[in-house]
Specification:
single chain, Rossmann fold, 4-stranded mixed β-sheet, 44% helix, binds glutamic acid
């Protein structure tokens, strides 16, 4: 039986595995096994009916070794401190793989946002911001969107922080609305990065996009953009899913049409999509669909020891953070399935967050094509570096990505030895 999943233990196991394979001494990476700071907050909200509910929130700073801490904030009913610690560690690794000058952090509120009204969510966001205020700031820790948060949430965080400071501080968060200092290209950046990574992989393997069939699990900000952009490259998106279930079409789905359908009305899900000749499938069926490329773009721990043996895709590009358990990863490796790991494949979001922050602190505004060009450069370079390590050291792409990140982090530690 698979042991109970703990995201942080999972993250540590991968980190240690890579450090050992790369031949580092424990002293060289021991600090990375511990988050630098963890803050747990209680977030009281006056509900619409006048009652008070208190939600638990977190902000974890895993590392500030290579620069200010950076990472999103999620609203999810299952979030807990262990998950946030793992997500923060992955941010450190992600920023190091992409070679952008940030450490890693993450935040969450344990809440099901679908159960709250817009006003309640706004009050929750503002009070959470006030509670984590001592930790965040443009020079020390910069939040961004993650699961169930978006540009509007970031705008409120920026406004709350600015009101409490007494002046406008655009650089305190990224992923803001463009009208208040957000960057063009940020909203689809993670999906675009996933597309770029998948295209690089196909190029390496001599696969033609037109002959490639893909399934995408998760139809939020990342999954929907990745599916759309891949479809525009000619890839056949045969299956899509969200929390309500999935849709399948062997000839490929019209992703733009599905996106438009979902966006047209709040509360619409893929289960409601009955327009074309699509077959409705379960989430398990999606993961096990007969495709070449599987893109998990939902939550952690989706590919597990239970289903890893049944996955038919030959290639997995991880758009979500931590979608594959350690046990599942071993099964996939043994089955010869190539996995492009999360810390590489989904780095596009934080890369464009970095561009947004750079624009904010310089009071500049870049054109969208400039943003996309720089994003592509960084993603392709990171992919090439990981691919080279993978081939030279004969390790999985996940190990190679961690080795690339560890090299940068351990070198930085060498120049910033333990204080005092
Ligand atoms: N939440 C995104 C991630 O997991 C983006 C983080 C950021 O832009 O800081 O990578």
């Amino acid at each position: 039986m698979e042991k109970k999943y703990n995201a942080y233990e999972n993250a540590l196991e991968v980190l240690r595995g890579a450090a050992e394979q790369a031949g580092y001494k424990h002293d060289e990476y021991v600090t990375l096994e511990y988050p630098e700071r963890e803050l747990k907050v209680s977030v009281p909200v006056v509900m619409d009916d006048g009652s008070v509910q208190v939600f638990e929130g977190y902000r974890v700073q895993h590392s500030s070794l290579r620069g200010p801490c950076k990472g999103g904030i999620r609203f999810h009913k299952d979030s807990d401190i262990e998950e946030v610690k793992a997500l923060a560690l992955w941010m450190t690794m992600k920023c190091a793989v992409a070679n952008i000058p940030y450490g890693g952090a993450k935040g969450a509120v344990k809440v099901d946002p679908a159960k709250l009204s817009r006003g309640e969510l706004q009050r929750l966001t503002r009070r959470y911001t006030a509670m984590v205020l001592p930790l965040i700031g443009p020079e020390k820790d910069i939040p961004a969107p993650d699961v169930n948060t978006n540009a509007e949430t970031m705008g409120l965080i920026m406004d709350t922080y600015s009101m409490l400071k007494g002046y406008t501080v655009p650089g305190v968060v990224t992923g803001k609305p463009v009208e208040i200092g957000g960057s063009l290209g940020r909203s689809e950046a993670t999906g675009r990065g996933v597309m770029i990574t998948a295209m690089q992989l196909m190029k390496k393997l001599g696969m033609q996009p037109e002959n490639t069939r893909a399934a995408v699990q998760g139809f939020g900000n990342v999954g929907s953009a990745a599916a759309d952009l891949l479809a525009k490259q000619g890839v056949k998106i045969c299956a899509l899913s969200d929390v309500s279930g999935g849709i399948y079409c062997a000839d490929g789905l019209d992703v733009s049409k599905v996106r438009a359908f979902i966006a047209a009305e709040k509360g619409r899900f893929l289960k409601d999509y009955t327009i074309d000749d699509v077959r409705h499938i379960t989430n398990e069926e999606l993961l096990e669909a007969d495709v070449d490329l599987l893109i998990p773009a939902a939550l952690e721990n989706q590919i597990t020891a239970e289903n890893a043996g049944k996955i038919r895709a030959k290639y997995i590009v991880e758009a979500a953070n931590g979608p594959t358990s350690v046990e599942a990863d071993a099964i996939l490796t043994q089955r010869g399935i190539t996995v492009v790991p999360d810390i590489l494949a989904n780095a596009g979001g934080v890369v464009v967050s970095y561009f947004e922050w750079v624009q904010n602190i310089q009071s500049l505004m870049w054109e969208e094509k400039e943003v996309n060009r720089h994003l592509k450069e960084i993603m392709v370079r990171a992919f090439e570096e990981v691919w080279t390590i993978c081939k030279e050291k004969q390790v999985t792409m996940r190990m190679a990505a961690y080795m690339s990140a560890l090299k940068r982090l351990i070198t930085a530690k060498h120049f910033r030895p333990i204080f005092p």
